[in-house]
Design goal:
Elements (H helix, E strand, L loop, with lengths): L4 H16 L2 H16 L11 H36 L1 H6 L5 H33 L2 E3 L3 E3 L2 H25 L3 H19 L20 H23 L5 H22 L6 H4 L11 H6 L4 H27 L7
Antiparallel strand pairs: 1-2
């Protein structure tokens, strides 16, 4: 059976809307953004020029780990809730085939993953600017205004969500999460109107690292792979087990291919295991920035192949899973 084009939008937005309304989504997102922005403020000793790299890597690390938990939790909860409430059985009685049902759920979770990345990207850029760096006029100095302006966006988003909930009866969590990236990106734009010393300037210079956007886009592919993996595993495993398997795959993907390459028998297996090191672009940014575009393209193609394979595997499993009516 085929699915009509008019069904795609509601089928995709339904799980995204349910995940947006979940308190865990806004808690994880706001906590990860706040922790990223606090990193340059709580460093107990001076790193010099390497401090900015440590802050950037910390923000990207939080994007990857917290994003994996968010993707796994969202995928598990949406599939379990729809099975228990009968929504899945009801949708499958419509002209919606089982593979397309799985694909629509993946797209819904994928929208939340990209929204999470849209929050973490400006937070990491502001934290990177706030970290201590050398300037001829000020010497080694931290830009506290950049970090504090990003932190201020979190309660501002909560106030926006509360106002819309009180005035229009719109879900607090959904409005808060949707307004948070708008405020953070606005803080990034306003960063060009003040210097690291905190003085106003007419010469617009944001002093933000745009390569962080490319590094984030690379890691988003990893989160989408985990979203598809968690959605497929949640058909047979409970949520806790699914999240544990995803985290195990995350840590194993950074180290397993390295020791497998030393074994002649296990070396062919490496080709079928995801190597997350391909998606970590910070080393290329620091050592060979002129190769960043090519490295990102390779990571994109590599991730797209694994993502496609994972989604097809999940769509195949969906044909066999029992959906209670």
């Amino acid at each position: 059976m085929t699915i009509r084009k008019s069904f795609w939008l509601p089928l995709t937005l339904l799980p995204a809307h349910e995940i947006l309304r979940a308190p865990i989504t806004v808690l994880l997102t706001a906590s990860a953004a706040a922790t990223t922005l606090l990193i340059p403020l709580v460093i107990a000793f001076q790193f010099g020029d390497t401090g900015r790299r440590l802050v950037r890597d910390g923000g990207l690390g939080l994007l990857l780990t917290v994003g994996t938990i968010l993707a796994a939790a969202s995928a598990c909860n949406i599939f379990r809730r729809e099975r228990e409430s009968g929504i899945a059985a009801m949708l499958l009685t419509k002209p919606v085939s089982r593979p397309w049902y799985f694909l629509s759920r993946f797209l819904g979770v994928g929208l939340i993953v990209m929204l999470f990345a849209a929050v973490m990207t400006p937070a990491t850029m502001l934290a990177h600017r706030a970290a201590e760096a050398y300037h001829p006029d000020t010497g080694f100095k931290s830009d506290y205004i950049a970090a504090l302006s990003g932190l201020f966006c979190i309660p501002l988003a909560c106030l926006t969500g509360g106002w819309w909930n009180w005035k229009k009866h719109v879900a607090f969590h959904a409005v808060t999460l949707l307004s948070l990236p708008i405020y953070l990106w606005s803080a990034c734009l306003m960063a060009g109107w003040y210097t690291r010393a905190g003085t106003f300037t007419l010469s617009y210079s944001p002093d933000l690292d745009p390569t962080i956007i490319l590094a984030t886009c690379s890691l988003v592919l990893v989160l989408l792979i985990f979203a598809a993996l968690a959605l497929a595993l949640s058909m047979y495993l409970p949520p806790v087990s699914t999240a544990a398997v995803c985290l195990l795959a995350l840590f194993a993907g950074f180290s397993t291919p390295a020791w497998m390459l030393n074994s002649t028998r296990l070396r062919p297996i490496v080709a079928f295991l995801p190597n997350w090191n391909w998606f970590w672009l910070t080393e290329t940014i620091d050592t060979a920035p002129h190769l960043l575009g090519g490295r990102f393209l390779l990571a994109f193609v590599y991730g797209l192949l694994f993502l496609t394979a994972t989604v097809i595997w999940g769509m195949t499993l969906m044909k066999r899973v029992e959906v209670p009516s």
